[in-house]
Amino acid sequence: MFGDILSDEAAMLTGSIGMLPSASLDANGKGLYEPSHGSAPDIAGKDLANPLATILSAAMMLRFSLNQPEAAARIEQAVRSVLAGGLRTADIWSEGCTKVGTRQMGDAVVAALGTRKTAIAKS
């Protein structure tokens, strides 16, 4: 119960629970990675959910369980780039930003990863 309360409170620091990745790790670094929010059945299939916590949970898995910190850093940078570009899902939208749905936000992160890959290849 207290973990649930703390995760809801921590969401206020990021602006939305849709921004919070999480991990439950054992002593050997194996873990369960998931966004800290629930399944949100009320918005399922409506292209409204923020996919960033899920994407950032995958980055945590790469970093902490799969020993791939460079890949994790690329994903985290792609998320930062998309947010710096002003894209926001409804839960974190504010005036002056572009409101997008789940699919468009995920596609933007994938595109930012591709841009980064291309930039690395050209170096």
Polypeptide structure, described:
It is a single chain. The chain is mostly helical. The chain has one domain. It is built from four helices and four strands, in the order H-E-E-H-H-E-E-H. The strands form two sheets. The protein has a two-stranded antiparallel ribbon. A two-stranded parallel sheet has the order 3-4. Strand 1 (21-25) and strand 2 (31-35) form a beta hairpin. The chain is globular and about 45 Å long. 24% of the residues are buried. Mean pLDDT is 84; it is low at 118-123.
What distance lies between the first and last C-alpha atoms, to the nearest angstrom? Answer: 49 Å
Widest sheet: strand ordering: 1-2
Number of domains: 1
Strand percentage, roughly? 5-15%
**Largest sheet: number of strands, sense, barrel closure:** 2 strands, antiparallel
The proportion of residues forming helix, as a percent range, comes to 40-55%
> What structural class do the secondary elements suggest?
mainly alpha
H/E order of the elements? HEEHHEEH
Number of helices: 4
Oligomer: single chain
Low-confidence stretches: 118-123
